[in-house]
Amino acid sequence: MSARLSVNLNKIAVLRNSRGGDEPDLVRAARTCLEAGAHGITVHPRPDARHTRHDDVLALAEVCRAYGVEFNLEGNPFAPERSGYAGFIALCERVRPAQATLVPDDDAQLTSDHGFDFVRDGERLEPLVQRLAALGCRVSLFADAGSDVARAAAIGAQRIELYTGPYAEAFAAGHAGTVLPAFAATARAASTAGLAVNAGHDLSQANLGAFLDAVPGVEEVSIGHALIGEALYDGLATTVRRYLAIVSGR
Ligand SMILES: CC(=O)[C@@H](O)[C@H](O)COP(=O)(O)O
Ligand SMILES: NCC(=O)COP(=O)(O)O
User: Fold this and answer.
1) CA of 7 to the centre of ligand 2 (A)
2) Domain coordinates of the chain in residue numbers?
3) pLDDT digits over 55-79, tens only?
4) Cα 142 from chain centroid?
5) Across the chain, where does the E strand assignment appear?
6) What is the ipTM of this complex?
7) What is the CATH T-level fold of the domain 4-247, as seen in this structure?
8) How much is the mean pLDDT over the chain?
9) I need a labelling partner for 150 at 20 to 30 A (CA). Which of 22, 42, 59, 191 fits?
10) Residue 200, ligand 2, Cβ within 6 A
11) Which residue out of 39, 201, 220, 230 is catalytically annotated?
């Protein structure tokens, strides 16, 4: 089984937002990725709208529908709605993404930096997981290596997404081998509990292959920051094809 590649377009939105206006255009970027063979599109709108915004979510959901690929919407279901941000569940009700990935990130965080504590958060997650499942969304929960993933299965999630930030850091420091066993063990525990496994955060062309070789059964990787950065040098379509070459056959 090859892992599928969902391209996160948040960073294109950051560039666009830095000047206002519509360029670079997220819909064009999504089409470019999909025509290059990407299996899906991911965005993670934040309540402060510093990346993708409500209108982006609607437009990208439409593009994914038109291409027959999965739209993966990420967000914190507990973040309160505010002007310009309807709230994660309301957004899911509006666009019914193929996959809703719940992430416990606060406004103050620069980026996502940990998974859920399923023992502590399980009770309040459960009704939201059920609500999203009733909308027809596959529900994936952001999870740290070593977390109690059986509890994620017990509250009705269908997948976990392994938070790979610590792996990327260890890889960059030359000691990926010290953290990979925990990721592999968590993936195996997820699979035993009936959960499929996604992975994401700071994955790159440099570190992706070693991760997929060591961690069994990863079904999808969502990649944005490194991919969009690499695309500045090599072009978006070429970069997506390079990621596809890495994931294929693993
Ligand atoms: C859950 C996750 O890891 C991604 O959604 C990541 O947060 C995207 O990157 P930015 O936070 O830079 O948008
Ligand atoms: N879920 C992870 C994601 O969408 C992309 O994370 P990153 O590659 O931007 O760090």
Assistant:
1) 8
2) 4-247
3) 999 999 999 999 999 999 999 999 9
4) 8
5) 4-8, 40-43, 70-75, 99-102, 138-143, 159-163, 196-200, 218-223
6) 0.98
7) TIM Barrel (3.20.20)
8) 97
9) 42
10) yes
11) 201
